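Fold this sequence, please.
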Amino acid sequence: MTKGILALSPLMVFIILYLVTSVIAHDFYIVPLTVAFMVSSIFAIATMKGKLRRRVNIFSRGAGTPEMMLMIWIFILAGAFANSAKVMGSIDATVSLTLSILPSQMLLAGLFLAACFISLSIGTSVGTVVALTPIAAGVAAQTGLSTAMVTAVVVGGSFFGDNLSFISDTTIIATQTQGCQPSDKFKVNSFIVAPAALFIFIVYIFMGQGISTPTNIPEVDFWKVVPYLVVLITAIFGLNVMAVLTLGVILTGIIGILNGAYDIYGWMQAMGQGILGMGELIIITLMAGGILEVIKHNGGIDYIIERLTQHIHGKRGAELSIAALVSVVNVCTANNTVAIITVGGIARKIGEKYHLDPRKCASLLDTFSCFTQGLIPYGAQLLMAAGLASLNPIAILPHLYYPVSIGCAAFIAIMLRYPKRYS
């Protein structure tokens, strides 16, 4: 037990240093995330056994995984696209178009619906966050709404498709590990989360009743909207997120130069500033990956799995253990796909032992991983959204209604043995 707690201690150090200190000070900006992760990284390396070079290598192996490098590439391209689009006026034009099309009371519900639709189409929450967050931040600035709240609408909706889409990594891994078809898992998953999505959609309609759209909306320059339209359309048709962002960067350059928003050097300057603006996210991503690799190397993940599976009684207890297992491992890995890969085999064994329906097991794995991923401030989605909206990720957390709602819906589904035919 002592060994297991020691393995998880770097995560505890981060929580104490960042969250506890911030709560005591009543200020979540007082401790920079980079400093909290730096101290936790030093602690993780210092408490490992073996030569210093070997310990650093283990940490670096986690920081430099293909998944981490892919995420950093996305951060770089997203920064270049977002800032070059902003400088050429693309965001302002897209916001003006949004405000002129959507009734004021449907702004929040419309953004949520757009995030749900796009994420369902492309199967990734990160791609949805990249596409819609700048627009959400612009809408907030124009209407006087809280930027954190409007950004949270997009982040929440992005997890709808991450959870349900047939081409989502989490769906593919969850169904493969449980031995069922994505279409069957989709049916069960829909029974669980569709009521939650509908409820949140209605909540956003009511929240939008007091919103007043500005009367002096600037005339829309449709050429400046083209980069965002192309990004959204190509993303919906399933083009890889890196290819989508690269195409967006090229279009901002061509249209911006032809419109006279900047020359080629100004475009490069805009891209460079956008990439530099993602520097903090890149540093946090690298250090988080290293810390989580150290935790895994020291047996922290194995300890969690062992502790959570030793007191199972009955089908309800088995389903709760699967939910707790994937949630806790997700907190430690900050990646819902990796969490499902890590515990998928164990979840299948639990399911076979207690005669659980594999379709419901796959749904619980996916839903609880998305619930957890949507609420960790060092997850890729919140970091990306915070970077694009110039916020602290902690500021977004109180407004994330949809991830909380699907977590509650999945918990109720376990307790009430719902849906009956799959329980």
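The first helix runs from residue 2 to 25. The two ends are 34 Å apart (CA to CA).
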